[in-house]
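Researcher: Please predict.
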Amino acid sequence: MAISIIVLDSSALNVAISKLVVELDTTLSVIQGIIVLYLLILGIFGELTTSIEAS
């Protein structure tokens, strides 16, 4: 379940990249870095939640 949420979330973020660049008045590389960090954190918490539920 957590993986499907991460995939949907990353897809939505990838679609919104150009809008984020304009709205936040920044560069593409900054937005991509933020998205990568966000998805890594989301993946870690998703894995932790799955591990806790399994035990």
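Model: The chain has a mean pLDDT of 82.
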